[in-house]
Amino acid sequence: MDTMNELFYQDAYRTVFDSEVISCTKGKHGYEIVLKETSFYPEGGGQPGDQGTLNEVPVKDTRRKNGAIVHITDLPLETGTAVHGTIDWNRRFDLMQQHSGEHIFSGIVHQLFGYENIGFHLGEETITLDFSGPLTWEDLRTVETKANEILYRNEPIEISYPSPEELALLEYRSKKELEGLVRIVTVPGADVCACCGTHVHRTGEIGLIKVLSTASRKNGTRTEIVCGRRALRYVQTVTDQNLAISHLLSAPVSETSVAVERLRAEMLDSTYRLRGIILHQLEENLKDIEDHTPVYVLFTEGIDTQELRKYANQVIEEKHAGIAAIFTAGKEGMQYVILSSETDLKPLSRLLNERFSGRGGGSSQMIQGSLHGEPEEIRTVLQAYAEEKADH
User: For residue 35, what is the enclosing H or E element?
Assistant: First the structure.
């Protein structure tokens, strides 16, 4: 690792520098500018490349290519041009907070459970981590608590380049075998890891580490975390949402989940009662249906497709209707079940899909699906279809 021309390794907090263009070529994503020396960190080790400006020309990404650091821009700079570079510091510091926080979190997972971090993605919103073993939500809360204790202690984050002999005796995390000069990032009490990224000077600068989610993944665990300003924004958003829920439910902020559960139970009870009323009304409607009606169409609500099919069956079997079409309002338009013991319904399915932007299908005697349309227009189409089939 040659760090002589890589100013970000000498001082990760340096935001401006002066240098000279040694090459500028057109690449796939824009002009690729190489400088004599640079403070722009190139994408690597899961950390995105820096952004900023060179002589007011925006640098939209920074990457390593064929051993050189290339600054990707939409405008060229001639070879030999003296440049004044400025790093987008807010973005750089955010990435430093995330990266340092990830080291602490992954290091403590390794300490407590012996798992390796086998995947790391530092995205625009969150950090995604894949660990090599199972972790419960309670496990991750324990890691979160211990990680934040490291922040409270404001430990120094140490960068070192051990000799091969020293490295052989050192226990450190690394995703692959390393050769040559190895850069070691140490957080006392939390982590020792080979890393090429930029980091804050002390753990207190990270501010906060917050776990957002967890899910099983193959034989391991995928979790999302946020650090620093991202964590603050997350807590502010969640707090604002909880306050809004608290006001809507007239419940203390600390008891919103209890209030929501109570409201949910009341809604389920109301839904159950309403469905009972609707089903009773359907039974009453059945008495008024004329026997051998060519087509029977009903629009209702509050029942599922299983109940739609049951009622359509009753209409066919008890009233000997030619076609029984039952509709209910659903999340994706109007849900329906249509039955017939004597009329081929496959052409009707195609007609409904075309006429009402529907999605559905089935057999010659039963079709089901969803569509979008006005009840009277749907009823007219069904009646016309039944009459056409009756004439044949």
Answer: strand 31-35
pTM of the model as a whole: 0.75
Of the candidates 226, 196, 249, which has an alpha carbon nearest to the alpha carbon of residue 45? 196
Q: Which domain holds residue 59?
A: 7-87
* Rounded distance between C-alpha atoms, residue 290 and residue 91, angstroms: 73
Q: Produce one character per residue of 62-85: b if its CB has 16 or more CB atoms within 10 Å, e if not.
A: bbeeeeebbbbbeebbeeebebeb
- Please, which residues bridge with residue 71 across strands? 33, 62
Per the domain annotation, does 319 fall within a domain? yes
Examine the domain organization and report whether 70 and 138 are in the same domain: no
Q: How far apart are CA 324 and CA 315, in angstroms?
A: 6
What tokens does 149 get?
């204790």
198 vs 38: CA distance, rounded Å: 14
* 75 in the same domain as 98: no
Q: How does pLDDT run across 45-104, given as a tens digit for each residue? A: 889 999 999 999 999 999 999 989 999 999 999 999 999 999 999 999 999 999 999 999
State how far the Cα of 108 lies from the Cα of 143, in Å rounded to an integer.
6
Nearest CA-CA partner of 302 in 326, 323, 322, 278? 278
Give domain status of residue 262, yes or no. no
Chain-centre distance for alpha carbon 363 = 39
Question: Considering the domain boundaries, does residue 387 fall inside one?
Answer: yes
| pLDDT tens digits along 14-54 | 999 999 999 999 999 999 999 999 999 999 888 999 999 99
